[in-house]
Amino acid sequence: MIKYIYADNLSADPVLRAGMFQDRRIQFKERQKWDLDVNTKGEEIDAYDAMNPLYVICVGADGRHAGSMRFLPTVGQTMVNDHFTHLSGGGTITSPLIWECTRFCISPDVVNSGEVAAKLMLAACELGLQFGLENSVGVFDACMVRIYRRIGWSPEIIGSAGSGADEISVGLWEFSLKAKLRLCTKFKISPRDVENWFETSFTTPEILKVAVA
Amino acid sequence: MSQKLEAFLERLKKTDTLDDLQRTIEHIRDVYDVEHVIYHSVSGTGKQYGALTYDPNWVERYLEQDYTRLDPVVLGALRQFHPMEWKRLDWSHPTSRKFLNEAIDSGVGNQGYSIPIRGPNGQFALFTVNKNSNDDNWAKFTNEYARDFLLLSHYVHQRANHIHNSDESTQMRDLSPRERDALIYLGLGYARGHIAEKMRISEHTLRVYIDSARYKLGAANTTHAVAQAISRGVIVL
Predict the structure, then answer these.
(1) Could you report the predicted ipTM of this complex, rounded to two decimals?
(2) Which of A58, A85, A94, B154 sits at a 20 to 30 Å CA gap from B58?
(3) Chain A: nearest CA to B54, how far in angstroms?
(4) pTM for this prediction
(5) What is the dihedral of CA B195, B198, B199, B201, to 10 degrees?
(6) Closest by Cβ to B146, choosing from A8, A131, A204
(7) Does B2 lie at the interface with A, CB-CB under 8 angstroms?
C-alpha cells in the first residue's frame, strides 16, 4: 500500500524510515554514484529532508520500505531551484501550482519494481489532482527516462546537461485525470484504491474509526 | 482557472490599502458564495495581520482565549504545507470539540478548506474558505475550486506583503531567461503556439513559464505580467 507521510511523522515507524534512507543510499550513492553524504547508520539524508517534506512511500507486505519519493512546494526552497537552475533555463521554477518531486527510489529488495514504481507515480498523480496542483518538477538521471516511459507517464524535459548515461535532466509532469486512469488501466489498479491511499493518509485515524463504525 | 478567479486577480492589483484588502476578502466571500474567508499572517518577527469576515466577537474571543494553541487547523498548518480539509483533522480531543462547537455557535460554517502559505524568513500565513454545507456538496465545491483557492491564497498573500511593504515583496525573485523570453514574445503579440515553437517547448511548458513569471511579478494576468515586466525594466520590447 501507499502512505503519504510528513518527515516529522516518520519517527513513528522507525523500520520504514531507516529502510527508506538506506535504500536511497543504495540507489543514489552506490548505484547512480551521486556525490551524497551518508551518515554512520548508512542513511542518505540531505538538507531537504530537514524541511519537513511530504514523502510518498510504498510499503511492502512485510511493512518495509519498497519505494518512495519526496515532495516540497516550489514557493519554498527546492533542490531544482537551489542547484539545477542551469538545467531549467537559468531561473527558478516557482508556482503555488507546482511541487517538486525528488529522490524517486525503489528498494533493491523488491521483486516487482515496475509495479512499485507505477504505484508511486499514481500516488503522486493523485496528490496533484486532490490538491489542485498543475505540475510536479523533478531532476533525474538518463536511466529514469526509460523507466518513466515504461510506466506510461513521461515528463516533458525542459533542460539537460551531460550525455549518455551521465545525462541529467529537469522535467515537468502534468497532473491529469487522463494520466491517472491510463496508469490504473495499465497496472490493473482500481482508481478507488488510489483514492483510498490518499483518504487514509490525510484523514486523522479517529475520524476513520468513526466512519467505519 | 475559473472566470471568478480571473476577475479577482484584476481586482487584487488595485488593492492598495489594508481597507481595500478587507473589502477584497469580503468580495471573495460573496463571489464564491461561502460563509467566511480568512487571511491571517504572522511575520518572521511575530507581527500578526488578518483580513477576515468572522463576527468580531468571535475574533475577540479567539484571541483572548489564545485558541491558536489548540486550533487543529493552525496546528496542522504550522507543520504541513498541503491544503487542509477541516473535517480530516483531529477534533477528537474534548477541548478541540468544545472549541469547534463554540466556533459554530459564533457563526463559523461547519466545513473549511485552509491553505498554509510559507514565506522566506519564517513568515507564515493561512488562507481559509469556510461554508455551511453537507459533505457531498462540499466535496464538489472544493474539487471545483481547489486550484482557484491555491492561487488566490498566494496572490492575496503577495498583495498583503506589498501593502505592508515587507522585505518579502521587495525580494522579488528574478525572472529566468526563458520566462523573460516568453513575456517578450507575448508582448510582441505572438500566438502561444508560435512562441512554443520558437522556444522549442510544448505549449504546456510555455504555460508553466508564463504562470511562474506571473507569480513572481504578482501579476493578475499575462497582459499585466508583460506590463509589470516592462515597467520594472525586466524586459525590453
Answers:
(1) 0.90
(2) B154
(3) 25
(4) 0.88
(5) 80
(6) A131
(7) no
